[in-house]
Amino acid sequence: DAVLTLKGIEKTYNIGKPNAVQVLHGVDLTLQRGEIVGLIAPSGSGKSTLLHIAGLLDRFDAGEMMISGQPVAGLKDRARTQVRRDRVGFVYQFHHLLPEFSALENIVLPQRAAGVSDAAAKARALDLLSSVGLAARASHRPAELSGGEAQRVAVCRALANAPDLLLADEPTGNLDPGTSDQVFDMLMALVRDTGLSALIATHNIELAHRMDRVMRLDAGRIVPA
Ligand code: ADP
Ligand code: ADP
Q1: Structure pTM?
Q2: What is the distance of C-alpha 148 from the center of its chain?
Q3: How far is CA 113 from the centre of its chain?
Q4: What letter does residue 42 receive in the DSSP assignment?
Q5: Interval between CA 15 and ligand 2 midpoint (Å)
Q6: Nearest atom (ligand 1) to Cα of 41
Q7: Which residue ranges have their beta carbon within 6 Å of ligand 1?
Q8: Distance of CA 32 to the CA centre of its chain
C-alpha cells in the first residue's frame, strides 16, 4: 500500500538550453503507508527539487510518480492542486506561518480552502494544537511564539487536512539542539499517531536514524544511507 511512488524520475532545469542542468538522474523511491523515511541530502544535491516534485509543486521530465496509487504525470494544474491540498502536507525549515493570523487561524485557513466548515475547522485546529501542547497559544500570532512553538504550529498546519503524505525539509534545522529534539519527537509522535507517511530531509544524522529508513540523495539518485 504505497503512498508515494517515484520511478526513474528525471529533472533538468533550463532543459534544451546551453545552461541546462540535470539535477535528478532517475530517482526511485517508494514510501509505504505509515513509513517514515529520512533523507540525507547535501546542499545542492537536489533535495528541494525532489521534495517539490513529490509535493506536486514542480513537474518532472521523465519517469513515473504515483500518490496513493494515482499517477500524477497527466494531471492538469487544477487536479494537481487538489491532490496537493488533500493528500500532501509540507513543513519547511522556517515556519512560514502567516504573521497577521493567530496560530489557530493559520491551521483553519488550509481547511477552509478545502471546503471544511468554520466550526469543524476550528475544532480540528484546537485538537491539533492540544496534541502538541499549545492549546493555550491558540490566539497568539507567530511573532508571539518561540521558534519551537511556531514550528509545532507549522506541523499542525501541515496536518490540518489529514494528508497521506508529509514532506518536511529540515523541519528542525532552524532550532537550537534541545528545542530541535523536542519538536522532532513531537513530529514523530504525531506522524505515528495519524499513520501517515513522511519523507523528512535533514542534515542531522542522529535524527535521521530515528526514522524507519534512511536514504541519501547522491548524484541525482536515491541510495541507502
Ligand atoms: P538542494 O535543495 O539540495 O540544495 P536544489 O534542488 O535547490 O538543491 O538545487 C539543485 C541544483 O539545481 C542546484 O545546482 C541548483 O542551482 C539547481 N537549480 C535549482 N532550482 C533551479 C532553477 N529554478 N533553475 C535552474 N537551476 C536550478
Ligand atoms: P519559490 O517557488 O520561488 O520558492 P513560491 O512563492 O512559489 O516561491 O513559494 C514559496 C515557498 O512555498 C516555496 O518553498 C514553495 O515550494 C512553497 N509553496 C508554494 N506553493 C505551495 C503550496 N501550495 N503548498 C505548500 N508549499 C507551497
Answers
A1: 0.88
A2: 17
A3: 18
A4: -
A5: 21
A6: 3
A7: 13-14, 21, 23, 41, 43-49
A8: 15
